[in-house]
Task: structure prediction
Amino acid sequence: MSRIEEFVGLQDPLVCFQCRRCTSGCPVAFLEKDYRPHRIVAYVIMDRVDQLLENDVVWKCTRCYKCTEYCPQAVAPSDVVMALQKLVSEKKGLPEAYVKMIKTVASTGLSFEEMDIADREFEIHNRESLGLAKLQPPSRIGVISKIVKALGGVE
Amino acid sequence: MEKIAVYWGCFTPTKQYALELSTRSVFETLGVQILELRNSACCGYPYRGVKPKLWLYLSARILALAEEQGYKYLLPVCNGCYNSLLKTQHFLKERKDVREEVAKYLAEEGLKYSGRTKVVHFLEYLHDYYGLDKIKEKLYSESRKEIKVAAHYGCDALRPGEIPRFDNPRNPTKFENLIEALGYTAIKDYPRKLDCCGAPLLAVNPELALKVDWLKLVNAASSGANLLVTTCEYCFEMLDTKQESASKVGGKPVSIPVMYFQQLIGLALGLSEKELGLNFNMSPVESILEKLKR
Result:
């Protein structure tokens, strides 16, 4: 367990008795043969986390919490997977999509920039054309930006 | 009830304009005053796995803003934001060390977090605060009975249930109650009713996100529903906007009209398609729109 330094949730994976209820209800396990939440928890318990980090299996979780909801032992497999995502990000770097989003938070406050979108008639719209108020960064964006960059590990 | 602030999150104000338009016009028509949470930013939820402290700081910041601006109740329109704020309250209550660290960051803006803000879901607001009976009294119409509507609650509205929710996390009914209050026939259950739309996978694994989306859509369509409704803009992006892409990835085409529940109530309130952003729905809503206007 020493390998998983900081859990997102408050649960203890060591109490898992491998009943596979998590896997049986997982929509991703239904679609992807190599994604088995109970097996991921087993690898963690056996301190074989390195093997899990060799491929992209930890990025297959859709974070729907069904496994956590139905676990009879309150193991929270989804939280275990998220802790593994953190671990692999620290080893191999944060996925580019997250880096981009965190940088956007640091500059605008939000995770995305305002987009122009098409309606069914292919007419393009934005906030202004729809009469919605202009987006503005929070007034203390300087302070927020500094903290977001430090905690998010982006420049 | 005391005044309530709306928190729009990131994805609604930057892309899913239909949710902002329909929520605003529905509240206005129902006589509910929308108060804006000023100076808000992202709630940090996408980063809860990879950067938990960033998440907790951003999320606690939203709750602290509500306190600073004197709001006891906060209504996030996004399911992700809803869960983010609830989970943050739960986590910070248990973990004093993290709470103290977050407090230091918040102090740089002169903000304080106490955790006392009541986070209210849109469905919870209508059902429990505005009142199911009042909705029924105002909007019920027998003529809608032949139309079958399935509800997609969205994962973050309900799970994990260890944190108290507005509805039973394993057998929720409030969404269906609201659908029936308008006069529609609610599909009470369908295979994979509580399954995910796939949106949380979009950033790192878009193809798998579409497969999960497709699985959900195929099962919702199998229920015989004429319409699938949700209140969350990420779920809507997957179920509606990306329905065609999901069909391609899934291998078997799926076709079901999808709307925001806000749009459905809006139609019952007599609001126009433009006021509800209904020109943005990409699923085959036109096949049913005229019937819904009755």
About this structure: Chain A touches chain B through 64 residues (CB under 8 Å). The beta strands of chain A are 117-118, 124-125. The first strand of chain A starts at residue 117 and ends at 118.
